[in-house]
Design goal:
Elements (H helix, E strand, L loop, with lengths): L1 E10 L2 E7 L4 E5 L6 H13 L18 E10 L12 E10 L2 E2 L2 E2 L3 E5 L2 E2 L2 H4 L5 E4 L5 H4 L2 H15 L1 H25 L8 H26 L8 E6 L5 H14 L10 E6 L5 E2 H4 L2 H23 L4 E5 L7 H11 L4 E5 L2 H8 L5 E5 L3
Parallel strand pairs: 3-15, 3-16, 10-14, 14-15
Antiparallel strand pairs: 1-2, 1-4, 4-5, 5-8, 6-7, 8-9, 11-12, 12-13
Helix pairs in contact: 4-5, 5-6, 5-7
């Protein structure tokens, strides 16, 4: 599939703007604060129904407006559900964002449409896929385990509705079980009330960890210019382990093991598998995150039969010339949209004689 264009109406700082993507590589150039990342956010919104940076939907709506719209045109080349070749078709995706009130009437904050027909999220996201790299993703190396779990979950939630349901159920059960543990600790509930919630936690937790491990296996099969390896550190959940930890859980008042405690380490090096977080340079760490994103692209292609759009937000900063060569060579594998503040980055990529398009965003 190919993203042909996107239109933004009252989205972030855009009142009414449209951008076309006619080349395999698009570079968006402009100063900080001009709205480059907002374009990538709009594109990613069309592929997931979710923002990669807004904590509240209202943050994406122009300051004095009731709603915002993001529209995209996708050219889809995939075979039909029976595997039969078909002509390419143009799909129009649209997301309408509201503050919960339009013309005085209550409404949902997110409306998803495919060819002007409203869809549920599970039927919306399958039409277009994207993977985004942002400077904030460096926290996958040095930040909290929660960020790394989110990385593992992202493609699995997008592609596997059963995983999405298991993940949602697990979080709900975890909250209820933790509340119950507190009540048992205070002698307000008998210990036997834990049984049902523990069984549900194990059932959904085992499914999550099984699929996370399969995804990690796929990541470690990917070839890259540097020898990276992902070491999955699951907080294994099972009936036996839950029984072993039950007394401690009542004392502390929360669940001590399970997928909500999972983590991973990126290791690198041919002789010794060193931790990238502890021993890698800033440039090596940035390449490590790019490697994770490339693995996500590969996984999406393997599972869907189509290439996702690669969104790179200021990826070239803190990279030396050799590392820039590595990233530039990878861009040819997918439709790629890059943002940068530097015209030097543009000149660097042009030297590779890549067919590219340039979009300038004024301040």
């Amino acid at each position: 599939m190919i993203l042909k264009g996107i239109a933004l109406q009252y989205f972030r700082n855009y009142i009414n703007e449209a951008f076309e993507f006619s080349k395999p590589i698009t570079i968006i150039v402009g100063p900080n604060g001009a709205g480059k990342t907002s374009i990538l956010e709009g594109i990613h919104l069309l592929s997931t129904g979710l923002s990669f940076r807004a904590k509240k939907i209202e943050e994406m709506i122009y300051f004095d407006k009731e709603l915002a719209r993001v529209k995209g045109k996708i050219k889809d080349f995939r075979d039909n559900e029976n595997g039969v070749k078909r002509d390419s078709q143009l799909i129009e995706l649209e997301i309408m964002l509201t503050r919960g009130l339009v013309q005085g009437k209550k409404t949902r904050k997110t409306h998803l449409m495919v060819n002007q027909v409203k869809r549920l999220r599970k039927n919306f996201v399958k039409h277009f896929y994207s993977v985004v790299f942002r400077p904030e993703d460096m926290r996958l190396i040095e930040g909290s385990p929660a960020r790394r779990r989110s990385y593992l979950d992202s493609p699995l939630i997008t592609l596997n509705y059963k995983y999405y349901s298991a993940h949602k159920t697990y979080q709900q059960v975890l909250r209820k079980r933790n509340k119950l543990l507190q009540l048992i600790r205070e002698n307000k509930q008998p210990r036997t009330t834990l049984s049902y919630w523990t069984m549900q936690l194990i059932k959904n937790g085992e499914y999550l960890q099984k699929n996370r491990q399969l995804y990690v296996n796929h990541i470690n099969q990917q070839e890259f210019a540097l020898p990276f390896k992902l070491e999955y550190l699951p907080s294994v959940i099972s009936s036996k382990r839950m029984e072993q930890y039950s007394d401690k859980e009542i004392i502390v008042g929360h669940t001590l093991i399970g997928p909500h405690k999972d983590d991973f380490i990126i290791r690198f090096g041919l002789v010794k598998d060193r931790s990238l977080a502890e021993y890698g340079s800033r440039g090596q760490q940035r390449l490590g995150v790019v490697w994770l994103k490339m693995a996500e692209l590969s996984y999406l292609e393997k599972e869907t039969g189509t290439k996702a759009v690669f969104l790179l937000d200021d990826v070239f900063s803190e990279l030396d010339s050799k590392s820039r060569e590595i990233v530039t060579d990878m861009m040819a594998k997918n439709q790629t949209i890059i943002t940068t503040t530097s015209t030097r980055v543009v000149e660097f990529i042009k030297k590779k004689k890549i067919d590219l398009e340039l979009i300038s965003i004024p301040s």
